[in-house]
Amino acid sequence: MGAAPERIELLFTFDREHRLARIEETFHRPLGKQDAPEQSLPSHVRGCIDGALANGTPITFAYMDEIGRPSLSLRGSVHVLGDLELAMWLRPSDHSAPALARNPYVSLLYRDNQTRTTLAIRGRAQVITDQDFRDRVYRQIPEVEQSHDPARQGKAVLVEVDEVSGSSPKGPVQVRRATQ
User: Fold this and answer.
1) Beta bridge partners of 24
2) CATH code at 34-176
């Protein structure tokens, strides 16, 4: 059930005349099967991110704009690149690239109401100008996103994931990059 409780207990208390006096609710959340955070994106998390646009849940991307204001936008091109790496394509009209050069810290949010899956992602983003990397990222974005930039004039972004927290039908999600 995703973020829903695993079990709910209801305690009914009655007065001397057998009228309902009080109802107490206790929510029991799943504890999860892991004691420590994982150090790579689990397969079900990868599937959520890679299938986000196709299932109607584009990822929300948060960054600080060039003058330090928080900025949000929906991104259909976010996809998993490696164990703790995401990539996305910025369209030519996108203004976030200069802001990322100034402040690389970003957050991304995935929310699927149907499966009650929520993933909050924190990381550091940078524009990568290497042509092989650009080609790889462009090839991996959905075709509908490619159609917005057929001349490939946009920019490829690498997001190094520092942590992911949230929940899914498989239980709590907790991923953290190992400190070095």
Assistant:
1) 11
2) 2.30.110.10
Give CA angle at 46 (97, 104), nearest 5°. 25
- The domain spans of the chain are 34-176
Task: Quote the DSSP letter at residue 113.
Answer: T
Cα–Cα separations (whole angstroms), residue 149 to 92, 142, 156: 7, 12, 12
Q: What is the DSSP string of 89-106?
A: EE-TT--HHHHHHH--EE
Placement of tokens 């996108």 in the chain: 94
Distances (CA, A) of 147 to 62, 117, 153: 24, 29, 12
Decide: helix, strand or coil at residue 134. Answer: helix
CB 2 within 8 A of CB 115: yes
Tens-digit pLDDT profile for residues 16-42: 999 988 888 876 766 554 457 888 999
pTM of the predicted model, to two decimals?
0.80
In the beta sheet, which residues pair with residue 165? 120, 174
CA dihedral 72, 74, 79, 83 (to 10 degrees): 30
